[in-house]
Amino acid sequence: MSCYASLVKPSSKLLLIVLISDYIFCRLSGDEFCIVIKDITASFQSQFADTLISCLRNGMLLSVGELRISISIGIATSEPNTKSFEDLMALADAAMYYAKKRGKNQYKLFDQSIAQDVLFRKQVAEKLRVALENNEFHLNFMPIYHVDSLKIHSAEVLIRCNAKSLQSIGPDIYIPIAEEFGLIKDIDLWVIETTFALISQHSDFIEQAQLSIAINISSLELHNTLFIQDIKKLITDYNIDTQCIQMEITETSLIETDELTITTLQALQNLGIKLALDDFGMGYTAFSQLINYPVDCLKIDKSFIDSLMLYKESEKSVLKAIFSIANAYHLSTTAEGVEEVAQLEYIRNNNCDYVQGYLLSKPMPWDSFVKEVTSPKTHDL
């Protein structure tokens, strides 16, 4: 007997518990639901998913208006080596992960390619655990410059791994895996504490140079009830002047903002820490919503800067709108990924405040960063 399990994740939270003849449809937690069907054919799986997506795409008419829902569906079928229902659910969950990566209203059947990638992610997660235990990480610093003077204003902290087992795997790969396997909080705290220790050691230099240090934090910290407590302790332990600290969160982490998210951000601001919205433009935040977020800076995503070289007026119009809105809301702006002189000239002419990118500098160790601040290169740009 085959058993079909499908995990469904609507983008809008809707509470449903339904029993339909041969189907079991129940809520698992939050906005995740499960459908279990016995004795079905392979062709029926795709047909069923298509029908479900089509039905929900049409929307639901409620007394207060129309509700539209998009979903991601992961599908798995029991095989002779499927040992338990929990194993089957894990396969469906893995398939749903890939469906979500494709975008809204997508489904994915569990297959061998997913199985191989699941194994890869598990192996990377284990290597990350070992690297944390062995303290096999270090920090690099990406200089951020004033647009007009090209004097260094601050540095973005970037984590790097020394472990040979992770030598060919960059943070763009292992950070999402760390989030998936519950390791990101330990990594975040390691980065923050290591940075605070360095700031404490070089506090006179940082104060004299009027530098700010920017630290990336995972969106998961916005729902970590212990995060603010941990930050307060580290501030006290290392006697940190929080005026030199900025924390960066990605814009996409605010797509589904709730009360706890806002409370956490406000608590960070109350500690004197500045907040930056990283990769801005990728999460499609409505400009009108910015006033609701306690942030101080917009970091414009590299893709917008790259598009300047395509000479598309539509892309330039979006950038101009971002700069205008930021100015109206008294937010500073940083252009990320500037690699061409023409890009620098454009953001200069549109009142951008700060710039970072390979045109001016690559990430570097702390000692090299200090030399860059004290004996800066001449940028004739």
Automatic annotation (TrEMBL):
<keyword id="KW-0378">Hydrolase</keyword>
<dbReference type="InterPro" id="IPR043128">
    <property type="entry name" value="Rev_trsase/Diguanyl_cyclase"/>
</dbReference>
<keyword id="KW-0548">Nucleotidyltransferase</keyword>
<protein>
    <submittedName>
        <fullName>Bifunctional diguanylate cyclase/phosphodiesterase</fullName>
        <ecNumber>2.7.7.65</ecNumber>
        <ecNumber>3.1.4.52</ecNumber>
    </submittedName>
</protein>
<dbReference type="InterPro" id="IPR001633">
    <property type="entry name" value="EAL_dom"/>
</dbReference>
<dbReference type="Pfam" id="PF00990">
    <property type="entry name" value="GGDEF"/>
</dbReference>
<dbReference type="InterPro" id="IPR000160">
    <property type="entry name" value="GGDEF_dom"/>
</dbReference>
<feature type="domain" description="GGDEF">
    <location>
        <begin position="1"/>
        <end position="112"/>
    </location>
</feature>
<dbReference type="InterPro" id="IPR029787">
    <property type="entry name" value="Nucleotide_cyclase"/>
</dbReference>
<dbReference type="Pfam" id="PF00563">
    <property type="entry name" value="EAL"/>
</dbReference>
<dbReference type="InterPro" id="IPR035919">
    <property type="entry name" value="EAL_sf"/>
</dbReference>
<keyword id="KW-0808">Transferase</keyword>
<dbReference type="GO" id="GO:0052621">
    <property type="term" value="F:diguanylate cyclase activity"/>
</dbReference>
<feature type="domain" description="EAL">
    <location>
        <begin position="121"/>
        <end position="377"/>
    </location>
</feature>
<dbReference type="GO" id="GO:0071111">
    <property type="term" value="F:cyclic-guanylate-specific phosphodiesterase activity"/>
</dbReference>
<dbReference type="InterPro" id="IPR050706">
    <property type="entry name" value="Cyclic-di-GMP_PDE-like"/>
</dbReference>
